[in-house]
Amino acid sequence: MAEKKSINLVISNNQYSEKLIPSGQTYKRVLILEDNIEVTTEGFLYNKGKSMYITYDEVADGGLENTKTIVKLEGENKLQIRRYGKDDGAGMMDMRLEEGVLNITRYVIPTGNLEMEIYTNKIENSLDEDGFGKISADYKIKMEPYVNLRNKLEIEVKPC
Predict the structure, then answer these.
(1) In 3D, which of 104, 108, 103 has the Cα closest to residue 93?
(2) pLDDT recorded at residue 106
(3) Smallest Cα–Cα separation from 56: which of 96, 99, 125, 4?
């Protein structure tokens, strides 16, 4: 698959807060759903070197109009999500997800930059040789003092 091909995408992101609940002499971690976003859009899929790329424009009703997102899948367990905002850099992000690794990056908002800590629990990739299937990521985002959430992202890639 060397050529760039048109694809349909279903992108779902569930955000959870975590709560520790007593369970005998220990504690059990419980996830509480805080937000769910699901977007269906069109994009492109191509390979470059040993990496697979998925590109798409963010949808206007998601608050990120004039923004392009590039998802780079390296091997089985490395995922990079880059978002480029065209309006003063708002929405710009370069997030790297790798199982068991803590990455620190910046998220650009209209009022300035926020430092983001991202710890990836798990990445699963069930894409076939044509690039169709699903990519899932379970990761935690921390932006002090605003956000401390667990995210479960799923990107489903379908033919047009």
Answers:
(1) 108
(2) 83
(3) 4
How far is it, in rounded angstroms, from Cα 45 to Cα 43? 7
State how far the Cα of 151 lies from the Cα of 118, in Å rounded to an integer.
10
Contact 46, 56 (CB under 8 A): no
Beta strands in the chain (DSSP E): 5-23, 26-48, 51-57, 67-74, 78-85, 93-98, 102-109, 112-125, 133-143, 147-159
For 54, counting Cβ atoms within 10 Å of its Cβ (0-12 exposed, 13-18 middle, 19+ buried), the class is buried
Rounded CA-CA distance 119/99 in Å is 8
Beta bridge partner(s), residue 34: none
pTM, full prediction: 0.87
pLDDT digits (tens, 9 = 90+) for 34-64: 999 999 999 999 999 889 999 999 876 655 6
| Buried b / exposed e along 73-96 (16+ C-beta atoms within 10 A) | beeebbbbbebbbeeeebbbbbbb
Q: How far apart are the first and last CA of the chain?
A: 16
